[in-house]
Design brief:
Length: 288
């Protein structure tokens, strides 16, 4: 990630005053839920104003329940050590399947052969429209209140039969799992802490998304795209070309990044990938 350049610096510790454009309010109503489990209202989180002036996102209860974990991670010297600490904690806390077999593993209680955060990461890398992708998007809806707009098909809204089919996939993907959403809560919070350590005093990174269609909206004179509640971006504009002939440059707030390639090595390798929370974004089309 050394080639990424921060494009915005924190200017003040004061909370910004947000003003939502009238032209985007109707869109925000369609893509946000009335309730979520974080400190930022879902409609604000999806807005252009938040893209310009983000504040840190805190998922309910995580800081209170796990202060020792994040203090330990913060005190570690390198990203590799922090990743190993995090993996070890998650394996112990959620009794996850260990990566190798041996006498010690055989002596432990049988691990649960269920979907966990590592399998969700691999599933997302393989195909974001599979059942693992449905689990990810269901978590985003629950924690951040951002509605899924597309999963295998266009989802017109919560009352549509298409959305009902999506919820059935979510139920199948998350049934009988071991506190799966809490695993993803911790992964997100680990990601946020790691980003703050790697990019101190930084609010945004410039990332790229390949699309087949142009920007859908023009709001207050700016080209704007609506991205799904969770989408893959990349730090390499040429890599983005593989996913669409039109590549857009986006200033993504760090607090809207759910995971990134080097957070946990061997999890999202290959495309310099970032998993980004959706909503409305001002974009610029890249000219090659």
């Amino acid at each position: 990630m050394s080639d990424l350049q921060p494009v915005s610096k924190v200017a003040s510790m004061d909370a910004p005053i947000y003003s939502l454009s009238e032209s985007e309010v109707s869109l925000l109503k369609q893509i946000s839920l009335p309730l979520n489990h974080c400190n930022v209202p879902s409609r604000l989180l999806a807005s252009l104003a938040y893209q310009e002036q983000p504040i840190p996102v805190e998922i309910d209860g995580i800081a209170i329940l796990y202060p020792n974990l994040f203090n330990m991670l913060k005190s570690a010297d390198t990203a590799e050590i922090r990743a190993n600490h995090f993996r070890g904690f998650m394996t112990s806390r959620f009794h996850l399947l260990k990566g190798s077999s041996g006498a010690q593993e055989a002596a432990d209680p049988p691990p649960r052969p269920k979907i966990n955060y590592r399998r969700l990461l691999l599933g997302w890398l393989f195909d974001s429209d599979n059942d693992q992708g449905a689990a990810w998007r269901s978590w985003v809806e629950s924690r951040f209140g951002l509605l899924t707009c597309f999963h295998q098909e266009l989802l017109p809204g919560p009352d549509s039969p298409q959305y009902l089919r999506f919820r059935q996939k979510c139920s199948r993907a998350t049934y009988n799992t071991n506190e799966l959403f809490e695993q993803l809560d911790l992964l997100y919070c680990f990601c946020q802490q790691e980003l703050r350590l790697r990019y101190p005093d930084t609010e945004h990174l410039t990332l790229y998304r390949g699309c087949t269609e142009p920007s859908e909206y023009l709001i207050d004179g700016y080209p704007v795209k609506l991205f799904n509640n969770l989408s893959s971006f990349t730090s390499d504009p040429e890599s983005a070309l593989r996913f669409g002939s039109k590549v857009f440059s986006v200033r993504v707030p760090l607090c809207k990044i759910a995971c990134f390639e080097s957070l946990l090595p061997r999890s999202l390798e290959g495309e310099q990938e970032f998993m980004v929370l959706g909503g409305l974004y001002k974009v610029e089309q890249v000219k090659f």
